Amino acid sequence: MQIAANQLARHLQGGVRPLYVLHGDEALLQQEAADAIRQAARAQGYTERTVHTVAGAHFDWSPVLAAGGSLSLFADKQIVEIRIPSGKPGKDGSVALQQVAQDAVGNDSTLTVVVLPRLDKATKSTAWFVALEQNGASIQLDTLERAALPNWIAQRLGAQGQRVEAGEAGQHTLQFFADRVEGNLLAAHQEIQKLALLYPPDQHPVLTYEQVEQAVLNVARYDVFKLSDAVLAGQLARVQRMLDGLQAEGEAEVLVHYTLAEDIRALQRVKLALQSGKPMPMALRENRIWGNKERLFERLLPRLEASQVSQWLQAAHAVDGIVKGLKRPDWPLDGWQALHQLAQQVCQACAQALQGKAQRS
User: Fold this and answer.
1) In 3D, which of 17, 36, 23 has the Cα closest to residue 139?
2) I need a surface site. Which of 159, 255, 316, 328 has the fewest CB within 10 A?
3) Is the same domain home to 163 and 120?
4) Residue 93: phi, psi to the nearest 5?
5) Which of 124, 140, 156 is where one domain is finished?
């Protein structure tokens, strides 16, 4: 059974199930989900807890299976946590986890929690994961997208009895807050808690922009693949901020260039497929364009000329040489400056294309 992350609290009000599977790459949300399950379990008498962390190809699964099948000497009910940081339990682990799933059915003395990282489609189709999901409750805890971050911050502030100013001023404050903590949800949570310490909710129920600006540290961490989405979305200010952040974090210029260039190549491949008569869904599927990027491609491609995409490809080729130490006429000598110029060129054109589409819709 699959449970949406925002429905977990309501689910737990009806009592805990014998088996839960938490999977995703957002550490804060995973930690909070596990805490919520433990708290609900303790209220139902699950007073003892053991943790098993699967490490290495030769991990011994016998203590895990024994823990789930034995009663504690000190408690009638127990929590058994199985943490698999790699997301790959191996052949023996696959068999063991299927046994864990089977043993969980109707077991009211042991609550098992399996904690996994983000899983790809192939892993979700394995026999061990399917068995866990069919016999337990599965909660996927994905990274929060930048667009959802202001609302998430507002909800967290509300939970501690605070809010930002109404109207445009408040939205500006939330956007500023989101810029400071993007890509680092755990630090965002800590910054929200810090606001309650600096400005106690009973004295400062409404936070001003100035208060947030003075208190919230710049703890943002940037993902090179999210940079690519920001470029295609025409978010110029965010793109410049992300490039500066990636440079400060020591990200490799070659990786940043590869990510940008790969999107440009994908745009060209799909554009050529459309010109040859293929429908958009087929062209996107053949080029493995999924998710948020798929939506961006669908909006952009009808508004982009093939010649424009070809120019971007030539520019990307020039920047490829620069980040590898070569000089190119009419381009900066510095690799990061060249990446800024390439990203800005593509981002501005995408912004204009999207704006033109919006004006006509």
Assistant:
1) 23
2) 159
3) no
4) -65, -35
5) 140
Query: pTM score, two decimals?
Result: 0.69
Single-letter code of the amino acid located at 220: A
Burial 257-284 (b: 16+ CB within 10 A, else e): bbbbbebbebbbebbebbeeeeebeebb
Range of the domain at 10: 5-140
CB atoms within 10 A of CB 88: 15
The pair of structure tokens assigned to 350 is 């995408």
Give how far the C-alpha of residue 53 lies from the chain's centroid of Cα atoms, to the nearest Å. 23
| SS3 assignment, position 140 | strand
Tokens, residue 239: 């793109």
- The single residue listed with the structure tokens 């060129």 is 345
**pLDDT tens for the chain, residues 1 to 361:** 899 988 999 999 999 999 999 999 888 999 999 999 999 999 999 988 899 999 877 888 988 888 766 555 555 789 999 999 999 998 999 999 999 999 888 888 899 999 999 998 899 999 999 999 999 999 999 888 888 999 999 999 999 999 999 999 999 999 999 999 998 899 899 999 999 999 999 999 999 999 999 888 888 888 898 899 999 999 999 999 999 999 998 999 999 999 999 999 999 999 999 999 999 999 999 998 987 889 999 999 999 999 999 999 999 999 999 999 999 989 999 999 999 999 999 999 999 998 875 444 3
- Tokens 């982009």 belong to which residue? 304
Angle ∠(89,93,97) on CA atoms, nearest 5: 105
Of 175, 195, 215, the domain-final residue: 215
